[in-house]
Amino acid sequence: MFSSVLETALPNKKIKSVFTVSLSLVALAAMAFVIPVNRAQAADKTMRIAVPFGPKSSVPDPRARQNGWLSNRAGVSETLISLGYDMALQPRLAESFSNVSPTEWKLTLRPNVKFHDGSIMTAEDVRASFEKLDQEGHPAHNPRLSKLLGLDAITVEDPHTLVFKTKTPNSAFLWSLTEPSAAVMREGTDDLPLIGTGPFVFVTAETDKTYRTRKFADYWGGDPKLDAIVMDALSDSSVAALALQAGDVDLVTNYPEPDFAELKNKGEGQLFSNPTTRLFFFQVRTADGPLANESLRTAISLGLDRDTIVAASLNGVGGEVANGIFPTSMESWVNSGLSLKYDPEQAKAVLDQAGIKDTNGDGNRELEGVEVLLKIRSYEGRAALRPTLEITQAMLQQIGIRSEISMAEYDANNEALKAGEIQMHLQAWGTAPLGDPNYFPSTLVESGVGYNFSGYSNPELDDLLVKGRESFDDEVRKDYYDRIQEIINTDLPLIPVFHKTQVSVGNGKVDGYRIHPAETYLVTPDLTLAD
Fold first, then answer.
1. Domain edges within the chain
2. What range(s) does the Solute-binding protein family domain occupy (predicted)?
3. Please, which of 2, 315, 368, 503 could form a disulfide with 17 given CB 3.0 to 4.6 Å?
4. Which tens digit of pLDDT belongs to each residue from 327-346?
């Protein structure tokens, strides 16, 4: 499949794909990783959903690491505030919220919300849940979220009211409360290891494989229509597609774009699609190694034909070319004056001017007398990553930059980038999963933050991020974030490639499913299977 992708992208180049996958192997993988479901024997209404990533432990506390993304999507955990499909803030466990001062936020809780153990949620429960984020050794410990929230104190005024006080003014605070890791949880027990408030109760999880839930009849938002849900982690979207065809799953959330396009052209299948804020980009090691050279980073960006990548990797159904970190759908925050053009001749000129030349005529350029060899990795879980990696390798070779590409585990790639063992990591992030522009740059490119594996540092950008958080005037903030986007496009610690449209396919019976732009919501009480 990937060989044909490369031939489409670069018709005049004879390039053999190192990632060709036979259909027989995919079919075997599908049988190995999906547990068949006998619908006739099922006593209840259970939906099986194929998702690209699974739980990271057998009891994945939603507040730790990125566990909340799965449990929030599974309908197990909930946050105080959520994002609507228009990406606007809306009440969830908190029925109202207000800004009391630049550092104080008052929230009033929704009454009579029950935890999965039957107890009523109180303001004390909320405070206790958030305090665990800073408790080293607790399963909920999350330094990343703690930094994002920047809490100084939480004061309980009465059983339904509490005030969050931040260390510094933070205009993005309410938006940060929509982060799935900011879930309100009670301490687990042997019978209920994860006690949340959502429409479904956590049952069991198998690391990197399955996540099982059952309905919670006392859910504050109404009785769920399904009795149970099983999420199967199938990182290879082709395997997931075969599982759907075999009737082993009911819904594939991340369907292969080529297969989706074929179904669409034939007018077949239960198809779902919606633009998201997800960006496919390269995180670049700028602190050391060959890509500490800014001219080389500039040339790489100029050498990427993003239109061809989108056409070949996404088959015209999966996204749009990136001109910066934010998609055009983020009208309030995108810097519409930016562009990331394709100009291989200019790329070559930039390299020549920087002294990065092919001196021995072998087609590969040298930097300071040493042949440039970029080690680039990505990971499984999103169908477009592999072909994008392959096409990038071919395009870089056209401007004289040799590269080695490989797939590995996501966290291992981050550690390798941090250690300088690889120079680029192709990945896919939601750039505005909280609806506010602060999250993505402050998580990836601010000096010293946990996910800044580039080793990148720019004092001007750091200062702008602080100002963006401390200002409560959106017009003023817009100027700050416009400049932040401009700096990223110039320095290129991240090289944006394209913004993703999520495509999903159901078995024809899926009802109540809707793709959220932030991709942080999936299961609702209304999700069901038609009889």
1. 39-246+507-529, 275-502
2. 89-447
3. 2
4. 998 989 999 999 999 999 99
